[in-house]
Amino acid sequence: MTSQAEPLPAGAVDSSRSRLTILRPLENRNFVLVWIGESTSILGDQFHFVALSLLVLQLTGSGLALGTVLAVAGIPRAALMLLGGAFTDRFSPRRIMLYSNGIRTVLTLLLAGLTLTGTIQLWHVYIIVFIFGIVSAFFYPAYSSIVPTLLSQDDIEAGNALMQITMRLAMLVGPVLAGIVVARIQVGAALGFDALTFAVATLALLAMRASAPASDDTVDSQSKPAPQPTAAPAGLLTAIREALRYAWHDNLLRTALIMIALVDFAVAGVFGVGLPTLAETRFNGAEALGVMLSGFGAGSLLGVLIAGSVKFQRRGRLFIILLVLFAVTIPAMVFAPDTSGIALLMGAIGLGSGIFNVAGISWLQVRTDPKMMGRVMSLLMFSSAGLQPVANTLAGVMVEFHIVMLFAGAGVLALTAALITLANREFRTL
């Protein structure tokens, strides 16, 4: 773990902490293990998404069926997300992630085996993704909370940037590789690779050593709200209620959660149902979907690199600009004449997503009471994923009527989020 430096005289410059800022977290062995393990797992996630989407479409030929499969995965994830955050604060992010990755390894191996043997049926998919959703409800709050437990406050943004860089690299190359594997080998082979990546992440967590929590000494007391009572000895329901009160009485956090809920509701249906349907009906299936998603990965990688190198002074205005970008580019995708056009628009969306995920999440982690971190992160994940089951089901219905409705509606929601954020003076001047 990096140690805290002694305060410098006014006006002095600590050159040892100004060079290669983004590489400082790599001095922390536990962070490196989490970084490598989860980056590998995220590469597998790209295979999982492409393979599962094409598997359901091959089994049913229905966008509505794909929407319901994603909804079945999303309902338990949304319902249990706040409970997952309370468990993360009660126990440790590492322990929750370890159990979650182990269970997901077994589930993905089962899905791969059924697919490779040709015995897979739609009801198998429903059961497996439902259990997957339960486990994910505990994994995501833990994953979003672990970086502040490993690094000093000075290094949190650099740590998040490193996590995001490898995530975006995986999103850049993963979908193309997955599309090739699915198209030229088999869906089951892609799912088997995903299971292997979960196993790698599990082993990385097992290899971590016990360490003391990261220091809070460098936190600027003006950058975060006053600590509120936590629920270490209280019941889980009490802990969840405290998190809800904590978020509701924080104007900035409340606005951010509403903004994220609207945007991710819009994007969930487009990414989960709209793009696979476009790829399958207008282009050449798996390989086209891989190219589209890789466009997002390329743009988001650039966004992460920008956010990791630039200290944004007006984050509120930045987020509003990004929301307007989403509102314009999402509807334009359905009118793109070819796969490369969609990939270019996805790159623009990815650029905005990459900037937000470093600048926004790091800001939120620094200003949150560490004892509330798991629950606040679970609220963030709930805002992001809580309405995805509804979004995916609605998207499945909309593509059955006319796919333009789905993309246009998503653009309207993104614009609505921009207007709500613009109306909040405190957030606008953040």
Could you explain the architecture of this structure?
With 430 residues, the protein is mainly alpha-helical. The protein has a single domain (26-215, 240-428), classed as MFS general substrate transporter like domains (Growth Hormone, Chain: A, Up-down Bundle), CATH 1.20.1250.20. Helices cover 77% and strands 0% of the residues. Helix 8 packs across helix 12. It is globular and about 50 Å long. 57% of the residues are buried.
Task: Note the topology.
Elements: H1 29-60, H2 63-90, H3 93-116, H4 122-150, H5 156-184, H6 187-206, H7 236-248, H8 251-282, H9 286-309, H10 315-333, H11 339-367, H12 373-385, H13 388-401, H14 403-423, H15 425-428
Mean pLDDT across residues: 79
Indicate the radius of gyration in whole angstroms. 21 Å
Count, helices = 15
Q: How much beta, percentage-wise?
A: under 5%
Q: Please report the total strand number as a whole number.
A: 0
Gross geometry? globular
Number of separate structural domains: 1
Provide the helix percentage.
over 70%
State the name of the first-level CATH class. Mainly Alpha
Q: Determine the structural class based on helices, strands and strand pairing.
A: mainly alpha
Instruction: List low-confidence stretches.
Output: 1-19, 212-233
Biggest pleated-sheet summary? none
CATH topology: Growth Hormone, Chain: A
Do you know the CATH architecture?
Up-down Bundle
What is the string of helix and strand elements? HHHHHHHHHHHHHHH
Q: Termini separation (Å)?
A: 31 Å
- Determine the CATH superfamily: MFS general substrate transporter like domains
